[in-house]
Amino acid sequence: MTRKNRWTQIALAIAVALIAVPAMAQPAAPAPAVDPASVAALTSMAAYLRTLKTFQVEAVTATDEVLEDGQLIKYNGTTNIVAQFPNKLLADVSSDRNERQYVYDGKTFTLLARRAGYYATVPAPETVRELADVLSAKYDIEVPLSDLFLWGAPGWNSADITSAVDIGPGDVAGTTCEHYAFRQEGVDWQIWIQKGDFPLPRKLVITTTTDAARPQHTAIYLWNLAPSVNDAAFTFTPPTGAHKIVLATIDK
Predict the structure, then answer these.
(1) Which CATH number does the domain 36-234 belong to among 3.90.950.20, 3.40.50.10490, 3.40.630.30, 2.50.20.10?
(2) pLDDT at 142
(3) Is the model's pLDDT at 27 over the cut of 60?
(4) Which residues of 84-106 are buried (b: 16+ CB within 10 A; e: fewer)?
């Protein structure tokens, strides 16, 4: 963290006297707001994620919602994703509020609302990363754990980071990690990156700073880098009794 250099506030006579004492250590220069090593660690993690061709990850999540009176309500959930790059994705999301399944086979995308018993299928682009953009722009739908697909992807960079600091070692579910804190406009976020040859993100905490209540989203990731899957896993079969509907688009 950057600290204000209080030496500039000391009277000139006292400063001269201190400098005249050989044994007195001089004040250290302020640390940079953006620690290059912390950004490098994030970049290395992003590059490693882009090397993964098939993986399964389960995220245990907790998300705050702010009521009109400013009170925070926390909702817990789990997200289980199987991805096969560049064009296969299966995600099951279960929370206190809803259950959703997201299925992408490289040609079509299907969203299933399990509890309501409805599903919708739309044409899809050729890659998972393009899918994330299309769903957001056209349908206001976010791909679950979308950060995992965007870190290190074309167009991603760290230029928006205004503060970066290495907090130190940390443990996430028995995995040794390095804990980093970053700041961007409107958002403070922390990430725990696994140490060693597999720099996987193990925990993410996002705090919205533009809201006085400072709501947070937390995710703890459990990884499987060698799941047993085939194309059938990414083929959607409607559950018995489910009804097909049209997926609403955003009004322009």
Answers:
(1) 2.50.20.10
(2) 92
(3) no
(4) bbebbbbbbbbeeeeebbbbbbb
